[in-house]
Amino acid sequence: MAQQQNPPGDSRQHGNVISVGAGVSQPDPKMVTMGSVDTVTIGEALEVTALSLGDKPVDRKDAAAIQAAETRATGESKTRPGGLAEAAKEAAATNERTVSEEAKVTIADILTDATEKLPGDKVVTSEDAEAVVGAELRNSPEMKTTPGGVADSMSAGARLNQPL
After folding, report:
1. Distance (Å, rounded) from C-alpha 46 to C-alpha 40?
2. SS3 150
3. Cross-strand partners of 20
């Protein structure tokens, strides 16, 4: 496969690679590859959140969104002991009492390897994304979702799963 080259100083996007003059290509920093080629699961969307927003301390709206995502993935209405939702709720409560930013529990602490931590997983649908967005909004004092957060990752996964 021939790589397209741009004149020096010219930067154009080709697929998910940006060609930067003189034949130097770099991955597009805005392109995040989620899941398999075919579909994105809820667990994979949660893992993307860990990658995109990993250093952010977990707060109540994150915990609510994680709980909604876990509920949608497993089909269970109750919080699973030892599950992602329980860990996120505990992290949010701990973080509210913790002064030092370095000591706070982060999104990455909870959501790294989410697909392995979930007892069940499924392909993200628009209904799943809507449920997670709603949970995050209901628990946000400013009534906003977190850019790059759980709701955003779930919405992106649902859009990618839409038939063309």
Report:
1. 10
2. helix
3. 11, 24
CA-CA distance, 112 to 133, in Å (whole number)?
A: 20
Token code pair at residue 113: 């390897």
- In degrees and rounded to multiples of 5, residue 104 shows phi and psi of -75, 150
List residues bridging with 41 in a β-sheet.
Answer: 123
How far apart CA 52 and CA 115 sit, in angstroms, is 16
pLDDT at residue 78, rounded to an integer = 87
pLDDT band at 37 (very low <50, low <70, confident <90, very high): low
- Per the CB < 8 A criterion, the answer to whether 42 and 157 are in contact is yes
Asked if 129 and 155 touch (Cβ cutoff 8 Å), the reply is: yes
pLDDT digits (tens, 9 = 90+) for 118-130: 999 999 999 999 9
Give the other-Cβ count within 10 Å of 77's Cβ: 6
Using only C-alpha atoms, the chain has a radius of gyration, in whole angstroms, of 18
Q: Report which residue type is found at 47.
A: E
Percentage above 70 pLDDT, the chain: 77
The DSSP element (H or E) to which 66 belongs, if any, is helix 60-74
Q: Please say whether the beta carbons of 56 and 72 come within 8 A.
A: no
CA atoms within 13 A on the CB side of 134: 8
